[in-house]
Amino acid sequence: MCCRKKPVLISFSFFKLLRMLDLEGCWWLTNEDLKEICKMSLLRYLCLRRTNVSQLPKLVGVLKELVTLDVRETSIRELPDTITELANLKHLLGGRYKHYTRISRVKHFEPHEALELGSLSQLTKLCALNCGYGGEKWKPFAASLNMLCKSLRHLSIIHLCDRDVGLEIFLQLKSPPIFLEQLYVWGRLSVLPPWILSLSYLVELSLRENFFDGELLTQLGKLPSLVSLKLYHESFVGTKLCFEQNLFPRLKQLIVDNAPNLDELRFDGGAPNLERLTLAFEREPANGIFGIENLPRLKEVEFFGEVIVDSLVEGMIAEAKIHPNRPRVYR
């Protein structure tokens, strides 16, 4: 359903048996309409994305059967306290998309708007963003995470303050979300939170502007289920990334996006199942890229970014020609 003018005869009071309502792009939708929608007590899916609504009414607590609530790209910035009455809610999607590479995007709401999310015991997917310096806004959100330790499967934490260490509160979670399958952390940290290393179900890990160095790969390489590792801009500021023997046994996708100080990328027997390698460099690594022949399942190598170093691409093409798997190299 997508239109700018309200259908003349539509009245939500006639649809009380409806389970799914998708109103994406209906700009005619008003806050008053939303009050009527909140009386449709059997709804399991409600999409208000790209509509003109600006406030969720307290009546939203009536939707006891609701599993998915999508308020992305609306003017809704706060959640009513009755949101915690939605015991079946698993997917809470809010905020606006922010594109930061051509292959990734994120949805968000600010952590102080999260209220007592810990009461939503069925919540599986959660993303929060903070644009203020310091870690005060993160305290209630971190407390909520401790209460969602068994339900969460997808978590994004974004601290958009250049080089500010506001995420330090996440170093020691009392009850970390042990069943996480996807984790995204954007923001500076003094060290890698130790609880991340205990996430035995983690399949995808994305990092950005964390300023890690040293033994990052040695630590992450022991995650038994990790399939995708995305090291975005300034997540790593060391000079050498080495995939050593017995590390990353299941890894299939690796992104290294503008590690500013990187001089050497080496594969010494680690990540034996790697299939896709995606690279972006602001400059050519001083020592180069080594060990592609130690990636027997490699299928493709992509170079992307505003600056693409021709010599790196040409060198990789030459390596691919003698690789047993003949991986595709492109930009």
Question: How is the main sheet built?
Answer: 9 strands, parallel
The radius of gyration over CA amounts to 23 Å
Terminus-to-terminus distance? 38 Å
| Helix/strand structural class | alpha/beta
Low-pLDDT runs of 5+ residues are: 97-108
Strand % is 15-25%
Mean pLDDT: 86
Helix-strand pattern, N to C? Answer: EHEEEEEEHEEEHEEEEEEEHE
Structural shape: elongated
The overall strand count is: 18
Oligomeric form: single chain
Tally of domains: 3
Number of helices: 4
Q: How does this structure look, described?
A:
This protein has 331 residues and is of the alpha/beta class. It has helices spanning 31-37, 138-147, 216-220, 310-322, and strands spanning 20-22, 45-47, 68-72, 91-95, 98-101, 104-106, 125-130, 154-159, 182-186, 204-208, 228-231, 240-244, 253-257, 264-268, 276-280, 288-290, 300-303, 328-330. It folds into 3 domains: 1-88, Alpha-Beta Horseshoe (Leucine-rich repeat, LRR (right-handed beta-alpha superhelix)), CATH 3.80.10.10; 97-186; 212-331. α1 (31-37) links the parallel β1 and β2 (45-47). The longest helix has 13 residues, at 310-322. 35% of the residues are buried.
Key phrases:
331 residues; alpha/beta; Leucine-rich repeat, LRR (right-handed beta-alpha superhelix); 3 domains; nine-stranded parallel sheet
Helix-strand layout with pairing:
Elements lengths: L19 E3 L8 H7 L7 E3 L20 E5 L18 E5 L2 E4 L2 E3 L18 E6 L7 H10 L6 E6 L22 E5 L17 E5 L7 H5 L7 E4 L8 E5 L8 E5 L6 E5 L7 E5 L7 E3 L9 E4 L6 H13 L5 E3 L1
Question: What's the quick description here?
Answer:
With 331 residues, this protein is an alpha/beta fold. Helix content is 11%, strand content 24%. The protein has three domains: 1-88, Ribonuclease Inhibitor (Leucine-rich repeat, LRR (right-handed beta-alpha superhelix)), CATH 3.80.10.10; 97-186; 212-331.
